[in-house]
Design a protein that fits this description.
By secondary structure, this protein is α/β, with parallel strands linked by helices. The protein folds into 3 domains: 44 residues, no CATH class; 227 residues, 3-Layer(aba) Sandwich (Aspartate Aminotransferase, domain 2), CATH 3.40.640; 79 residues, no CATH class. It is 40% helix and 11% strand. The strands form 2 sheets. A 7-stranded mixed sheet has the order 1-7-6-5-4-2-3, sandwiched between helices. Helix 3 packs across helix 5, helix 3 runs antiparallel to helix 13 and helix 7 packs across helix 8. The longest helix has 28 residues. It is globular and about 65 Å long. The chain binds pyridoxal-5'-phosphate. The site of pyridoxal-5'-phosphate (PLP) has 15 residues, from helix 7.
């Protein structure tokens, strides 16, 4: 007898993944029928025409097929050949062999230096794991944290559905907390306290809080004060923090900057909560989603727990080696004075300028549509507009009906969510002209 639907895992059946759910399935059907579909359900820049960075692809080509160094050296800048040789020497056996489970040490050391340079903080290369995209790292840590059906993890609403799907898959409870739309989608302590209290009242043992910064789908960029508040909250309740920082290069407004949780923890000398930070080569200006490169770095994790993380990672042997090499290319870009630098800098600028242009174009365009309002897109790659109209109603100037309920508001969101309770804040109205003028000024001054 073949495998039966009724016999498969309950948690697999319960898992929902909206980013690749029914709307995408319907789009695929229409595509098969010959319709042209532009998939905007997930940040997949190269599927929308973004070219890969030459530096990345040169290194990957040379590492995948080292014979090119002799067969066609004229195709590659000298620094790319030198760097590819260094990567290959670091792997010892090339990209076709398993690496150690944490990932190639030489590449982890480069990641550690990248974090040191970014945050001016010490990093232990053995607290870094190279992963198949950030997703696998997030799943490893959720797997570790969820020890039974009462265990819960706090997840932002609106969220990126990796979190809800994985928590369900691992048999835990998602504890939704709402982001404060009126305050640029930052986190609010009363909203966090409220979500935690509700979960505890329902018997949930809350283990951790996930934070996405810059936010998907909100585009919010958290400042140091907001991150400090989250750290205080986690400390007060003994929660681990999962800091999803895959959009750290995607910041569009002058005056905003990426602040890592690792830096804030270090500066506050916080030692009593564990932090897991995630990064990826899928976003930023690389957009190498298909390469599946990522890493996580942990802090304040006792040795016996660290050994279990290593064991978990060992079950799948190691992350894919081309993805690991791509992480090296990401954290060790050409420096000024190197032959590849001018091309690298020009390509990087072009991609970031294009993304910023799209962020401005999209938010301004949405705000011009009657009945729709959209917060400023400060970072990441998404717009999260609202339309405060009734179910099924049509906005006069647009041909489509509204389709997502949120109390009395309606969301048109790229990443869909199903909060267990409606948010308590009032539905937002169209941003006042003064706010739009302020955004325009900030965008203009950040060009
Ligand atoms: C917030 C967030 N985290 C993680 C991921 C997944 O990244 P990766 O491709 O590295 O698995 C995405 C992808 O869109 C994302 O938006």
């Amino acid at each position: 007898m073949t495998i039966q639907f009724a016999d498969i895992s309950r948690s697999v059946l319960a898992t929902e993944y909206a980013v690749r759910g029914p709307i995408v399935a319907r789009a695929a059907e229409l595509e098969k029928q010959g319709r042209e579909i532009i998939y905007c359900n997930i940040g997949n820049p190269q599927s929308l025409g973004q070219a890969p960075l030459s530096w990345n692809r040169q290194l990957l080509a040379l590492c995948e097929y080292p014979a090119l160094m002799d067969l066609a050296p004229q195709l590659f800048p000298a620094d790319a050949i030198e760097t590819a040789k260094a990567i290959l020497a670091g792997t010892k056996h090339g990209l076709g062999a398993y690496s150690e489970s944490r990932g190639v040490r030489f590449i982890r050391e480069a990641v550690a230096e990248f974090i040191l340079e970014r945050d001016q903080i010490g990093v232990d290369p053995d607290a870094i794991f190279l992963t198949d995209g950030a997703s696998k790292g997030v799943q490893t840590i959720l797997r570790l944290l969820l020890s039974g059906p009462l265990d819960g993890v706090m997840v932002p609403i609106p969220q990126y559905p990796l979190y809800s799907a994985s928590i369900t898959l691992y048999g835990g409870r998602m504890v939704p907390y709402f982001l404060d739309e009126a305050n640029g989608w930052k986190l609010s302590r009363p909203m966090l306290d409220d979500a935690l209290a509700q979960a505890q009242a329902a018997g949930t043992r809350v283990r951790a809080i996930c934070v996405i910064n810059p936010g998907n789908p909100t585009g919010a960029v958290l400042d140091e004060a907001n991150i400090g508040m989250i750290v205080d909250f986690a400390q007060a309740h003994g929660l681990s923090i999962l800091a999803d920082e895959v959009y750290q290069e995607n910041i569009f407004l002058a005056g905003d900057e990426f602040v890592s949780f690792a830096k804030v923890l270090h500066e506050r000398e916080v030692k009593d909560i564990s932090l897991f930070s995630f990064h990826s080569c899928s976003k930023g200006f690389l957009g190498e989603c298909g390469v599946r490169g990522g890493y996580f770095e942990y802090r304040n994790v006792p040795e016996d727990v660290a050994a279990q993380i290593l064991k978990l990672q060992s079950v799948c042997l190691c992350a894919n080696l081309p993805g690991q090499a791509a992480m090296y290319a990401m954290v060790r870009p050409p420096k000024p004075g190197m032959p590849s630098y001018p091309q690298y800098a020009a390509e990087r600028k072009n991609i970031l300028d294009t993304l910023k242009h799209r962020a401005i174009f999209l938010a301004e365009g949405l705000n011009k549509i009657e009945g729709i309002s959209c917060n400023i897109i400060a970072g990441a790659m998404y717009a999260f507009p609202v339309s405060p109209c009734r179910l099924g109603a049509r906005i006069r100037s647009t041909p489509w009906p509204c389709w997502r309920p949120r109390a009395s508001a309606w969301y048109l969101a790229p990443a869909s969510v199903r909060p267990s309770a409606p948010p308590t804040s009032a539905p937002p109205s169209c941003p006042p002209p003064s706010r739009l003028r302020r955004w325009s000024r900030r965008w203009a001054s950040s060009t």
